[in-house]
TrEMBL record:
<dbReference type="InterPro" id="IPR036390">
    <property type="entry name" value="WH_DNA-bd_sf"/>
</dbReference>
<dbReference type="Pfam" id="PF07729">
    <property type="entry name" value="FCD"/>
</dbReference>
<feature type="domain" description="HTH gntR-type">
    <location>
        <begin position="5"/>
        <end position="72"/>
    </location>
</feature>
<keyword id="KW-0805">Transcription regulation</keyword>
<keyword id="KW-0804">Transcription</keyword>
<dbReference type="Pfam" id="PF00392">
    <property type="entry name" value="GntR"/>
</dbReference>
<dbReference type="GO" id="GO:0003700">
    <property type="term" value="F:DNA-binding transcription factor activity"/>
</dbReference>
<dbReference type="GO" id="GO:0003677">
    <property type="term" value="F:DNA binding"/>
</dbReference>
<protein>
    <submittedName>
        <fullName>GntR family transcriptional regulator</fullName>
    </submittedName>
</protein>
<dbReference type="InterPro" id="IPR011711">
    <property type="entry name" value="GntR_C"/>
</dbReference>
<dbReference type="InterPro" id="IPR036388">
    <property type="entry name" value="WH-like_DNA-bd_sf"/>
</dbReference>
<dbReference type="InterPro" id="IPR008920">
    <property type="entry name" value="TF_FadR/GntR_C"/>
</dbReference>
<dbReference type="InterPro" id="IPR000524">
    <property type="entry name" value="Tscrpt_reg_HTH_GntR"/>
</dbReference>
<keyword id="KW-0238">DNA-binding</keyword>
Length: 212
């Protein structure tokens, strides 16, 4: 039984990373059997992994028994950002009362790097962006809140337009504004700074859509 759990967890982590990174085509259906052969796994632990991914809204089962990665459409992305605005605003307020000063200062320093490196690699910025949002969520002290925020961010990344957001300097400035209020221990100002940040992210994405 423990071996099945270990295999299932590995399959889950592998598939989840492939989905979030856009390495599995949203238009290409696959089956449990084909996936089991590719991963050299039995179908029982693989099915458990697939069920978890389905529960997270990352994949869908087709009527014929196939499985497909969900396509996150623009309308859903806008809704995700609306929910994130509420949840991450609350996380920032809670974080302001809990985050360690040294770690916050270190993240501010990382943010400042992107103020003068607007031509940084996209993946490098995404990794930093993950660190920022994960830091705020984790230091909210609310594990369920942090998990919900993480899942919503992963779903948002499955929408192709999120890769069009290249305003690294603007985002870094907004992150610093949030972190400064967290550093100062100002919950409501931290909340507002995070709300402002996600609002601006949404506005930039909409502007890109209408201009393209």
């Amino acid at each position: 039984m423990s071996d099945d759990i270990s295999i299932s967890e590995k399959a889950y982590q592998y598939l989840r990373s492939m989905i979030i990174d856009g390495k599995i085509d949203t238009n290409k259906a696959f089956t449990e059997r084909a996936l089991a052969e590719k991963l050299q796994s039995s179908r029982t632990p693989l099915r458990a992994a697939i069920n978890r991914l389905e529960g997270e809204g990352l994949i869908e089962r087709l009527a014929g028994g196939g499985i497909v990665v969900r396509e996150i459409k623009i309308e859903e992305l806008v809704e995700i950002l609306m929910v994130r605005l509420l949840l991450e605003g609350e996380a920032a307020a809670l974080c302001a009362a809990r985050a360690p000063a040294e770690a916050t200062a270190a993240l501010i320093a990382q943010s400042e790097y992107f103020l003068t490196n607007s031509d940084a690699e996209f993946d490098a910025f995404w990794a930093y962006d993950d660190r920022f949002h994960h830091y705020v969520a984790e230091h909210s002290g609310k594990p369920l809140l942090a998990k919900l925020i993480g899942n919503l961010r992963d779903m948002a990344r499955m929408c192709h337009v999120t890769r069009m957001e290249h305003s690294f300097v603007s985002q870094a400035e907004e992150h610093i504004a949030v972190l400064r209020q967290i550093e100062a221990g100002s919950p409501e100002l931290a909340r507002q700074a995070m709300v402002d940040h996600i609002t601006k992210v949404r506005e930039r994405l909409m502007r890109w859509l209408f201009d393209s």
